[in-house]
Write a structure and sequence with these properties.
Layout lengths: L1 E3 L2 H11 L6 E6 L5 H13 L2 E6 L9 H6 L4 H10 L4 E3 L3 H4 L18 H4 L3 H16 L3 E5 L3 H14 L4 E5 L19 H6 L2 H14 L4 H13 L4 E10 L15 E9 L2 E9 L1
Length: 281
């Protein structure tokens, strides 16, 4: 496995690799890897001759300095895990390599970036689009792999690829969960044992909502049931729960059979913010 911290030698290595006819898969991460990330690596390896994983905690996508400071970092462990699953290349730059000067570029994704995560984390998707654009330009992958858990992020990046005509295809990989149902997340490392156990309530709330909506319940009543379920669980707090169009993230007021729908939820386990979602088939 090759490890690069600088852009120039990585580009030189990839240029030589592209002389063969194989494809390159990119798995962008912020480290603190878990089995969900490793599933992305495996998905890339199954379809590409070379898999590149990036490990970079991107400061421009954090609207809360304390959240950035507390984000878990475990580079040595991450590299070992990537080597175990057969990743070919790791790119782990520092801030000076990715941002030689303060960026003044701004992306506007319209309503797609203003709801849910965009509403509660202003500037987040601008930072995501900025760093992902950099990674796409540096690595020039044929495919890029993202987890379904960050579905709104996936929709934003899909819009980015379409608008800027990046020559690659995006792949979304299903959520990997703990036995309790809790979606795997790097932020889970910050949870206490009781919080980790109780945080499965977010997945339970999605299941409850899906069952009730499928049975014909009104969305207003479902939202109340979701809030009650979460708020009565120790240390859990709901931030939002929405029914949305899966493609454009338009918030829905009712179930529309003609639309591909998704249930999206965000909340706190103690001070740790978690998100989750579920397709409503």
């Amino acid at each position: 496995m090759e490890i690069f911290k600088q852009i120039a030698p990585l580009r030189a290595f990839l240029k030589d690799s592209k002389k063969s006819d194989g494809s390159i898969g990119l798995v962008p991460t912020m480290g603190a890897l878990h089995n969900g990330h490793l599933t992305l690596i495996e998905a890339s390896k199954s379809s590409n001759s070379l898999t590149v994983a990036s490990i970079y905690v991107n400061p421009t996508q954090f609207n809360n300095p304390d959240d950035l400071r507390r984000y878990p970092k475990s580079l040595d462990r991450d590299v070992e895990l990537l080597q175990m699953v057969g990743c070919d290349v790791v790119f782990c730059p520092d801030d000076t390599e990715m941002y030689a000067s303060k960026s003044t570029i701004n992306f506007d994704f319209g309503p797609l970036g203003e709801v849910m995560e965009g509403k509660f984390r202003p500037g987040h998707f601008n930072g995501v689009a900025l760093v992902v654009s950099k990674l796409f330009n540096i690595i020039e992958p044929d495919f890029a792999y993202f987890g379904q858990k960050d579905w709104q992020q996936f929709a934003v990046i899909n819009k980015l690829v379409d608008e800027l005509k990046f020559n690659l295809r995006l792949q979304s990989v299903p959520i990997v969960r703990e036995p309790s149902g809790l979606a795997l997340s790097s932020r889970n490392f910050r949870l206490t044992a009781p919080q980790r156990q109780n945080a499965s309530i977010f997945h339970s709330a999605l299941q409850l909502a899906a069952n009730q909506l499928t049975a014909g319940a009104e969305l207003k009543q479902v939202k109340m049931a979701v809030r009650d379920l979460i708020e009565k669980t120790p240390e859990m707090r709901l931030q939002y729960f929405e029914l949305a169009n899966r493609k454009n993230l338009n918030i829905m007021e009712r179930v529309e059979p003609s639309c591909d729908l998704i249930l999206c939820i965000a909340g706190f386990a103690g001070e740790v913010r978690l998100i989750d979602n579920m397709f409503l088939d």
